[in-house]
Amino acid sequence: MEDRRPSLAPFECASGISWLSHYSAKGTNRCERRLASAHEDASESPPESVPCSGFVHSIETCGTVDGPGLRYVLFLSGCPLRCQYCHNPDAQGKPHGEIRTSESVIEDVVKYRNFIRRGGITISGGEPMMQNEFVHDVFRRAKAEGIHTTLDTSGFLGHRASDEMLESVDLVLLDIKSSDPQTYRETTGVSLQPTLDFARRLSDLGKSMWIRFVLVPGLTDDEANVRGVAKFVAGLTSVERVEVLPFHKLGESKYEQLGMRYQLSDTAAPSPEQMASCRQIFSEEGVTTR
Ligand code: SF4
């Protein structure tokens, strides 16, 4: 039977703030220090906003595929999944790399305001919800600046997203990597159910979603698996777009550099016929794809 609780790596912590303190360079971060000082001096009002810190993998200032319009895309490091086709294997595992405050991220984002005014900011990864407090703080600040926000997630850690946090998210890009639990686990290394639970919760909240499904010949292309994703998506009420993406090998060289095994070296990208057949299955379930 499919296990319903996410199986997490040992560094899981319920609070992004305390969790980050374990990994900050000097054992403390601005977020923690501000919180501590606010608690120590009860005579002072707590600061209006508390800047949080997060581990950033990379930044793309003019992204065009991760949400509507031109977007500032913040890729965070850290991911509990091990997708066979991941093109950022260096982002997997514990969050690591450059530490940025949410304050500094937004200061940078607003410099691009003219370019992204029909777009916004997207936080991707890795799995952004490994750093949920940081994501929330960046999005809260972005909304205060009138900037559109998009969360790009596998949904595996969706239970970490509070309703309050989701209020600061305009759009969720949700990857549903398979519908068959065994195939999902083979593809990602983790269980499927948390992603389905998160999708239903987003639907119940009326939160806008773009669903993404990656077609990998020999891995995710079984008709029953594809049809299962299509049927599931057809039952959601707030899906604005469904994207069927062809598997590609852009990240393969990184595996070699990292000394990791790339399991899909012998897998070819899907042919136009295979893509068309996959889209046809979605269509038969009443789901239009792009
Ligand atoms: S969820 Fe994304 S970052 Fe994580 S392993 Fe899968 S493809 Fe890579």
From TrEMBL:
Its EC number is 1.97.1.4. Keywords: 4Fe-4S, Cytoplasm, Iron, Iron-sulfur, Metal-binding, Oxidoreductase, Pyruvate, S-adenosyl-L-methionine. PROSITE patterns: RADICAL_ACTIVATING, RADICAL_SAM. Binds 1 [4Fe-4S] cluster. The cluster is coordinated with 3 cysteines and an exchangeable S-adenosyl-L-methionine. It is found in: Cytoplasm. Pfam families: Radical_SAM. Its main location: cytoplasm. Its cofactor is [4Fe-4S] cluster. It catalyses: glycyl-[formate C-acetyltransferase] + reduced [flavodoxin] + S-adenosyl-L-methionine = glycin-2-yl radical-[formate C-acetyltransferase] + semiquinone [flavodoxin] + 5'-deoxyadenosine + L-methionine + H(+). PANTHER family: PYRUVATE FORMATE-LYASE 1-ACTIVATING ENZYME (PTHR30352:SF5), PYRUVATE FORMATE-LYASE-ACTIVATING ENZYME (PTHR30352). NCBIfam families: PFLA (TIGR02493). Belongs to the organic radical-activating enzymes family. Activation of pyruvate formate-lyase under anaerobic conditions by generation of an organic free radical, using S-adenosylmethionine and reduced flavodoxin as cosubstrates to produce 5'-deoxy-adenosine. Activation of pyruvate formate-lyase 1 under anaerobic conditions by generation of an organic free radical, using S-adenosylmethionine and reduced flavodoxin as cosubstrates to produce 5'-deoxy-adenosine. This is Pyruvate formate-lyase-activating enzyme. It comes from Aporhodopirellula aestuarii.
